Every structure is written in structure tokens, then in C-alpha cells.
TrEMBL record:
InterPro entries named among the record's database cross-references: Nudix_hydrolase (IPR020476), NUDIX_hydrolase-like_dom_sf (IPR015797), NUDIX_hydrolase_CS (IPR020084), NUDIX_hydrolase_dom (IPR000086), Nudix_hydrolase_domain (IPR051325), Tetra_PHTase (IPR003565)
CDD domains: NUDIX_Ap4A_Nudt2
Domain Nudix hydrolase: 2-135
Signal peptide: none
Species the sequence originates in: Hydrogenoanaerobacterium saccharovorans
Protein family: Belongs to the Nudix hydrolase family.
GO molecular function, one term: nucleotide binding
Keyword set, alphabetical order: Hydrolase, Nucleotide-binding
GO process terms (BP): AMP biosynthetic process; ATP biosynthetic process
Superkingdom of origin: Bacteria
Name by which UniProt lists this protein: Bis(5'-nucleosyl)-tetraphosphatase [asymmetrical]
Length: 137
């Protein structure tokens, strides 16, 4: 069994007293709505990978919140087990510049709309955890 590891982040912004909004990206090759993420490169830790991937795919620099680290595992193809570690990050500047090679669309949605927009159950679970985490801040 081959193992792969990626890291990424649920990126959020807060406008006035409204609900937090999450940034969703539509992956060019899978066609699914999810969050920025990518493979860990040699010499990187999980946090470095997540920050780099968010910046590469969205142009955003984010601040990660302490205490939120969620791990998802799945099998993208036979004999391949993939682990993805997600953090929760705040975007001070929300002007997105998408990476055309990997991202076909980006959109900000309030956290409840994002729950309905993501493609996979794992992502829905992540949004629920992020929403609970943000309510406790």
C-alpha cells in the first residue's frame, strides 16, 4: 500500500456581524468543490505545507488558528491511502488570485451554504467541526 500525505486549510473571513464565510475552490481535474490543499514537499512540516498550498492556489496569506487540526483519510485509487491534514485559517485580505493550473473557480460562501456546496462527506464533516470551533472562540 502506497501512502500519500497532503495538507491544507479551511480558509475563512468574517464580515461585520455576519456568519463566517469559507473559501471554496473547484479543483480543475476532479471538478469537485473543496478546500486548498497539496502534497507535503521535502523538508516541510504540516503547517508550512498548508500555508504554501493556500498561497499557491488562492494567492492568500492566512493566519492559522491554534487548536484546529483535523485529519482525513481516504483511498483515491487502488492500493493508495491518502492522509490530508487540515487547519483553519483566517484571511485578513480576501482578494483571491486563483492558480489557473489547478483551480477552475473560487467562491466565498457563508459557512452554512458551504456545507451544502462541498462535494464530499469528509468535507461536510470538516465544515461542521470548523463551525463548532469558531463558535467557541
Amino acid at each position: 500500500m502506497r501512502r500519500e500525505k497532503s495538507c491544507g486549510a479551511l480558509v475563512y473571513r468574517k464580515k461585520d456581524d455576519k456568519k463566517p464565510e469559507l473559501l471554496l475552490i473547484k479543483h480543475r481535474y476532479g471538478g469537485h468543490w473543496s478546500f486548498p490543499k497539496g502534497h507535503v514537499e521535502a523538508g516541510e512540516n504540516e503547517v508550512q505545507t498548508a500555508l504554501r498550498e493556500v498561497n499557491e492556489e488562492t494567492g492568500l496569506t492566512i493566519d492559522l488558528l491554534d487548536g484546529f487540526r483535523e485529519c482525513v483519510e481516504y483511498y483515491p485509487k487502488p492500493n493508495v491511502k491518502k492522509q490530508v491534514v487540515y487547519f483553519l485559517g483566517y484571511a485578513e485580505n480576501d482578494q483571491v488570485h486563483k492558480q489557473d493550473e489547478e483551480v477552475s473557480e473560487v467562491k466565498w460562501l457563508d459557512i452554512d451554504e458551504a456545507l451544502n456546496a462541498v462535494t464530499f462527506k469528509n468535507d461536510k464533516n470538516l465544515i461542521c467541526r470548523a463551525k463548532s470551533f469558531l463558535l467557541e472562540l
